[in-house]
Amino acid sequence: MKKQLSEFLQIGFGVLLASIGLKVFLLPNGFLDGGVTGIAILLSELFEWNISIILVLVSIPFLIMSWSTLSRRITIKSILAIISLAVMVHFENFVPVTNDKLLIAIFGGLFLGAGIGLAIKNGAVLDGSEILGIFINKQFGISIGKVVLCFNLILFSITALFLSYETAMYSTLTFLVTAKIIDLTIEGFEDYVGLMIVSNKSNAIEQGLVDVIKTGTTRYKGAKGYGKRGLREEGDIIHTVVNRIDIRRTYGLIATIDENAFIIEFDVNNIKGGILKEYLNKENIKTLLPAWK
Asked: What architecture does CATH give domain 192-288?
C-alpha cells in the first residue's frame, strides 16, 4: 500500500512538471514536442481547439493499444495520468517567464521530459508514442526506437509544412531535450560502463580492480583466441562494471599491470546488486583522485 501511494504521488508530481513545461513554455509560444503531446499541440495550433480535450482524444487509440500490449495496471495508471495532465493544463494559469525561443525549447523540454520520465519510472505513460513503438515491435519486429523516430519525423515534417520551418526546428530541439531528460530521470545520473579485459596477468588486474577501484569482477574461461600476438590458448577473461567517473583510473590501473591488455568497453543501462561504490559520501571522495596514471 505504501509503495502504491508513493508511485501515485510521484506520478502526480510528474504530471505537474509536464504541465508546467506545456503551459509556461511550449503552448504560449506554439512550440511542439514529439509524440502524442506534439500531435495535440499541432491540432490545437491549426484549428484552435481546446488542447486539454485534444490531448485526451488523441491518447485514446494509444491507450487501447496499451490495453492489449502492456498490463492493465499500467493502462489504468496511464489513463488517470493523462486525464490529470489534461485537467492541469486546462486550469493552470502560469505566466510565461521568457520570450527567448532557445530557452523555451530547452526548458520546455526539460520540464516535460522530467514529468514523462517520472511517470514512466512509476508505471504510467503520459505520451503514447512509446506504446505505438511496443505494439509495432510485437507485430512486425521493427525496433521501438525506429518507430518513435519515424513517428516524430512525420510529425515535425507536417509542422514545417503547415506552421513554419523555424517552429519545426525549435520543436525538434525540444524533443531531443525531452528524450534526454526522460533517460536521465529513468536511469539516473550515474553512468556505468562495462569492461571485458583479456590479459596474461588477469590475477593481478582482478586484485587491483577489487582493492583499488573497489568494484566487483566476474571471470570467464576463454577457450581459444587469435590476436596481434598470434594464437592464444586457454586464458581468463575479466568482466567488470565501473562508474564512468572511475574509467580513467581503471584504464591507468590496467596499463600499470599490463599495457598490452585487450579491453572492450560497452555501455550499461541498469545496475542492481553487486559491489558498487557510493560516490557522494565523505569517506569515498578521496577515491575519486586519479591514483593510477
From this structure: 2-Layer Sandwich (3.30)
Cell numbers placing 277: 561504490
Specify the DSSP element, H or E, that contains 193: strand 192-198
For residue 138, the SS3 value is: helix
Task: For residues 184 and 114, give the distance between their C-alpha atoms in angstroms, rounded to a whole number.
Answer: 8
Q: Are 254 and 261 in contact (CB under 8 A)?
A: yes
Cβ 79 vs Cβ 71: under 8 Å:
no
What contacts 256, CB < 8 A, 6 or more positions away? 208, 292
* pLDDT tens-digit map of 196-224: 998 888 899 999 999 888 888 888 887 66
- Asked whether the beta carbons of 242 and 195 are under 8 A apart, the reply is yes
| Intervals of CATH 3.30.70.120 along the chain | 192-288
Considering only 29-33, 98-102, 135-139, 225-229, which range has the smallest mean pLDDT? 225-229
Mean pLDDT over each residue of the chain, to the nearest integer: 83
Please give the Cα distance from 216 to 232 (Å, whole number).
26
Question: What grid cell was written down for 119?
Answer: 511517470
List, for residues 105-158, the tens digit of each pLDDT value.
Answer: 999 999 998 998 898 888 888 887 778 877 887 788 777 667 878 888 899 999
Residues whose CB is less than 8 angstroms from the CB of residue 107 and which lie 6 or more positions away in sequence, other chains included: 21, 25, 98
Separation between Cα atoms, residue 293 and residue 256, nearest integer Å: 8
CA distances from 285 to 134, 191, 252, 275, 280 (A): 42, 17, 19, 17, 7
- What is the value of pTM for the model shown? 0.72
Q: Are 86 and 52 in contact (CB under 8 A)?
A: yes
Band (96; pLDDT cuts 50, 70, 90): confident
